[in-house]
Amino acid sequence: MKIEIYTKDNCIWCDRAKTLLASEDLEYKEFDLSDDKLRAEFYSKIGNDVKTVPQIFIDNERVGGYQDLVRWFSNGIK
Question: Cα(78)–Cα(20) distance, rounded to whole angstroms?
């Protein structure tokens, strides 16, 4: 399973999402959108309509933010 999480510094929801993934023993690759170049690449990939972090992708499908990740797990997907 390929998991990518896009975050920013000092984001409690980002920290919670990473903690949830770690509690499930899932490895992920983190991208810090505090970096201007990376943020520009991210928005070119997903579009400018998404303004919140974290943004989580599993197997190249956008799950969404932290609450969406919680729902993903509650649906028994893993």
Answer: 13
Condensed to tens digits (0 to 9), the pLDDT of residues 13-56 reads 999 999 999 999 999 999 999 888 888 888 887 777 787 899 99
Number of domains in the chain: 1
Distance CA 68, CA 74 (A): 10
Alpha carbon distance 57, 65 (integer Å): 9
What is the span of the domain harbouring residue 52?
Answer: 3-74
As beta bridge partners, residue 62 has 57
- Do 37 and 44 form a contact (C-beta atoms < 8 A)? no
* Residue 34, domain CATH: 3.40.30.10
Q: What number of other Cβ atoms are within 10 A of residue 46's Cβ?
A: 13
Which helix (H) or strand (E) covers residue 64, if one does?
strand 61-64
Q: Could you tell me the pTM of the whole model?
A: 0.86
